Amino acid sequence: MTGLKVAAGVFILLVAMLLAQMLFPPQREPAPLATQGMPWQIELPGAGQSRVFGLTLGGGAASTLADAQHLSTEAPKLALLAPPEKPLALEAYFDTVSIGPLTGKLVLSIAATSSELQAMRDKAAKTDHLETGVRKFTLNDADRQRAERLPLAAIAFIPSAGLDEAIILQRFGAPAERIRQGETLEHFLYPALGLDIVLDSKGKEVLQYVAPAEFARLRAPLEK
User: What CA–CA distances, in Å, run from 108 to 66, 78, 96, 189?
Assistant: First the structure.
């Protein structure tokens, strides 16, 4: 009888444990959320368009400089640049941006017509001559506010952490084309994504993004 009582007690205990697991299942740790907006997470929202860092390039829905403010706590440095023997260029520069666990510098090219750029130059609040020979024009307040609403034409990201060939191929896949430029530079070209990764053996790497429909802007200079 004692043995039967022990066996019955063990059976009751096992049933109680089973019911407890069914009624109160163990809580699992939630899966970590995937980091969004990384340099290799490039979306193609429409024909000829791309989207990276939460910013859209190309088409009527292209993002603006104002849309890029979420990438940094600092205000961008905005200037109109006049390189020697080259067209005027309107650019915004973030000295530090945080993209998930990555940090780096960000340069945004802003789309504007030649007449719009010339008008901004004529009304510039200040002009500086840089050592590189480039003239830098500081916009007046009205033109600065207007520039913040113009569409972005290109994005350049300079990561703080260095890249190498293995990391590029792992994160971005095999490029459509690889072109060496001089002794230290190699371009990894992804025309379908509108991306040119410049690997520099003696300097910082640069990731250049344009709308895929505008990829010739990145490819054409490499033919010279």
Answer: 11, 9, 13, 19
Q: Would you say residue 14 has pLDDT above 70?
A: no
The type of residue at 123 is K
pLDDT computed for residue 17 by the predictor: 53
Query: Which residue type sits at 90?
Result: L
Q: Which two tokens stand for residue 141?
A: 């307040």
Burial class (CB in 10 A: 0-12, 13-18, 19+), 44: middle
Q: Quickly state the pLDDT bin for 67 (edges 50, 70, 90).
A: very high
The tokens of 61 are what? 């829905």
Alpha carbon separation from 36 to 19, 56, 170, 209 (Å, rounded): 41, 15, 17, 17
Per-residue pLDDT for 64 more than 60?
yes
Span 180-189, average pLDDT: 94
Q: pTM for the complete prediction?
A: 0.82
Phi, psi of 85 (to 5 degrees): 60, 30
Mean pLDDT of all residues in 62-76: 91
Q: Tally the C-alpha atoms within 13 A of residue 35's C-alpha that lie toward its C-beta.
A: 9
Longest dimension (CA), the chain: 106
Mean residue pLDDT of the chain comes to: 86
